[in-house]
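call fold(seq) -> tokens
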Amino acid sequence: MAVVPEQNDDMAGTVSITLGRAEALILFEILSREPDRPECGKFQVPGNRDADYWAFDELLGALERVLPEPFGPGYDQYLSDAAHNLIRRRGRLPGPDHT
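ret:
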């Protein structure tokens, strides 16, 4: 007789995250280009690559559902404004290669 482990219900359900629009636009841009980078890009989370991909994909889909800017005219300007806003509020990281 085989024993089948019970499904972990702790992973059922959803969570809500509140982000500023600037953060949401920057995350959208990162996540939308990440799958096109060689070997899934520069920031790889250790662990199951399939799970990483699907988690990023779900976050990207959630951002797609709430952000009209990436699909309209002037997206590059919105993205630039978001980056400047975020840096103005949070500051620059130390080091010469942070823009």
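The CA atoms of residues 22 and 85 lie 7 Å apart.
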